[in-house]
Amino acid sequence: MLATFSTALSALTADETAINVVGNNLANLNTPGFKDVVVSFADLVTQSLGAGSGETQVGGGVGPPITLKQFAQGAIQSTGGPLDAAIQGDGFFIVKGQEGATEYTRGGNFQVNSAGTLETSTGNAVQGWSAVGGVLVNSGPTGDITVPTGTLTTPLATTATSVSLNLDATSTVATGTFSTALTAYDSLGETHIVTYTFTPSGTPNQWNYSASIPAADAATVTPATGTLIFDSNGLLISPLPTDPQPVIAATGLVDGASDMSITWNLYKNGAPTMTQFAKTSATSAVTQNGVAAANLSAVSLGTGGQVIALYSNGQQVVVGQMAMVSIRNPDSLIGAGNNNYIASGLTAIPAVGLPGTAGRGTVLGQSVESSTVDMATEFTNLIVYQRSYQANAHVVTTVDQLSQETIALKQ
Hints:
single chain, alpha+beta, Tick-borne Encephalitis virus Glycoprotein, domain 1, 3 domains
């Protein structure tokens, strides 16, 4: 009869553990990347009563339950948060724990701290690769992803321009002059207006052009001049793509910047950027390859785990790449708190690489993976465990009453 006490008490302990698991699951119903935990029960070794093969067996109760993480894919929710990221498929983000240990997480709530380090919402540094000297290499050992903060980007002088436009084939020398302009930058990031002027030459299908920056911007400005020749279909035939392209030169810039040499590309991928049709002269696009100095204005995560720096001049620069790890048996991971996991002695060797490669899932920016906890399932389990606890508590009460009656027989 005393064995019955221990049998029922083992059930009470197991049910208490199971209820705790349900409570933890429900508490993390809204935790991004949280994985549902299920409880696995197993009976204790039975004892055989009687001789021979032991026709009567009485179990010893239930053993301590085993908890198992269910690494199913959670629903992807779009958040609009620039530093949110979700994994679609297998794999984990790599983070550095509080003690410097390598940990893994599916939670995608990231932020940038005051030092420019990308980290989780609980302060764990996200691991990956950072650009060094403007060059990003997505290989080799991983480290903290650092975003450059508090400094200006170096300006880049304009060395090439392009103008896409149409010149009106019906224009005359008297009325056909057409001009367009774009902004170029020197080595100090100062702006210079490049003006392109086109005038009919008086010969059909021929236009004279001139391109220059203001004469006041430099001691010497050499404009680009010449003639454009179009065929009867309105397509540019001279200069050809193989001919030297027009160049605007400026020396002795008044702001002290380096001398400028700007090539005007009349062709893009072998196709002319200008036409001459019987339609009003108009510009459709202008491009140049220079940029001004700029401050960092924002940081965002792009699809694929790229860390993108957004600058005040509109420039977007990839300054980092998040790493991902694939683990063949993720159910062997041990919870480390803060929605992180650490490897156990049974965990297969993690394989580090880029998202979307070698079986690793893809990373979706401005999204998070929802918890896999199902409220209806958890409440059902809670009721079942509650009934089990009540039943085994009743067993303890019943055995206690029987014990009292047995003691009374001796009296």
